[in-house]
Structure formats: C-alpha cells, structure tokens
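We treat protein structure as text, and this decision shapes the records that our systems exchange. Such a record has a labelled line for the sequence and another for the backbone structure tokens. The record that follows is passed on verbatim for readers who wish to inspect the format:
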Amino acid sequence: MSDASIHTPAQTKEASFGDFFALLKPRVMSLVVFTAMVGLLAAPGSIHPFVAFVAILCIAIGGGASGALNMWYDADIDAIMTRTQSRPIPSGKVTGDEAFAIGITLSVFSVVMLGLATNWFAAGFLAFTIFFYVVIYTMWLKRWTPQNIVIGGAAGAFPPMVGWAAVTGGVSVESTLMFLLIFMWTPPHFWALCLFMKTDYRDAGVPMLNVTHGRPATRNHILVYTLLLAAIAIGMGFTSVGGPIYLATALVLNALFIVGAIRIWRRDDAACEADEHKVEKRFFGLSLLYLFLHFGAILAEVALAPYGLGGW
C-alpha cells in the first residue's frame, strides 16, 4: 500500500472538474485513444461505427482509470518531483481516496461496457492492461528495478491490440507488431527525458537507469533500443497494415531517430551541461512525434485502401 496519505497535503479547496479530469492523464489518454483507434480501423473485418465509437471510448476510460490509480499510489513521489508536484493529489486539490474511488469505478465500468459492446476477449485484454499498469508497473516495477520502464512500457503498448481485438476477437502478427512498436519506443523516449531531468528521479527514490547505472550506460541503452525499434518499425511496413506511405514514413523517421541516438551516445556529461542538454531535448521532442506519425501513416494506408492507393 502506498504511503501517499502521509506525504501529501489534505484537500485545501473544492476540486473543479478540471482537477478530476487531470487525474486521468489526458495527454497519455490521447495517445491511448489514437493508437487504439488505429488498431481498430486497421483490423480486418467490419464493426458498426457506433460500436467502434463505444469501444474507443471504453479504452479511453480504461486508460484514464489507470492514470487515476497511478496518481493515487504515486502521490508520495509525485510530491517530490518537480515535474509532477502540480498534479491534483500532491497539490491538495483532490484527495487520495477520491482518486482511488474514481480509478476503481472507471476501471470496472470500462471493462464491462467494452465486453457488452464488442467481445469479452477485448474486455479481458483491457482489464489486463489496467492491472499491468497499476499493479505490475506502478506498485512493483517502478520502485524496484531500473528496468521499470522497459517492462512496464507494455501497459502503454497494449491499446492497439485491444482495438484490434474489439473487431477480430483475437490477436495477430500485425497487432503484435503495433504493440512492439510502442513497447520498444518507450525506453529511449523516457531515458532521454531522464537525462535532462537532473535529480528528480533520484530525489524521489525511483531507480531509473540513469540513477542506478549512470548516464553513460543510459546513453548506450538508448542507442541499442533505438536500433531494435527501427528494425521493428520498418519491418511492419511489409505486413498487411503497411504499404508505401507507411514504409517511407518509417524509413525517414527511424533514420532521424538513429542519428539522434548516435549523437546522444557520443556525448559526455560536460558537453550536455555546456549546451543544457539540447541534443537530448531534441531527441525527446522527436520521440513525441515518432509514434503519432507512424500510426498516422498506418491510418493513411487504411483510408486510401478502398481507392487502391493504400497497402501493398
């Protein structure tokens, strides 16, 4: 059990709708919604537009529920880290009990509604995703191992598989590759952030790789994972969800990503401090666009397929 109630202030004023909405991590939810939608639209088979809308809404609510439960459990370390001090619980706008109640309620609602609207395989997949993020990652891996973001990244990679399953009732090579694309992207994305976040994770006692193994090891890991990521991203271009648009996008993006990773790999702490981590910040900025553009390219292939212009 988290000791959030010990380390966070009591509610200081009546919370607004925006404060409760912030519990759902809307920025993260937007990525969940987009990748799940692409997985759903790229899946073979048909689904009624209204059912598709309900499915995406349920996946979004499930993602938001995960965020609320994550903030409930992590309120103690959120109060320490500069990046998270303004979140609803450490800032005293929402209590831990309120966040927990919202998270549990939305979790159950999203899973049951997805099962009723589509199929129970997709619903079970969503339930497992919530469990993985809250229990496996937040409660266990995050505070225990420097591989936290590597293994825990699976939680954020499941949404396109859930979207795919909502249509097909199962998994496939294509949905697995979409999962792997997000899974392998997560470590270099977060490790780049860690390199210029200075002492935040160390102060909070979170064993991120840069804290436990140092910045040189983190740079090495960023390069290795970027190379593996590129192989997966480009390989997906030759599957049924790929095509010339996707492949061209993947080739350009991954070339830029590899160049950025090599530049980070070649640097030392003195160079980073001298230019205020400009290279790392640029790489992180590119990583924010990376997934959106890859999944956007898959969506373009799907949209153009009826006209004979998408896919192979």
Notes: The chain has two domains: 1-170, 172-312. The CA atoms of residues 139 and 216 lie 28 Å apart.
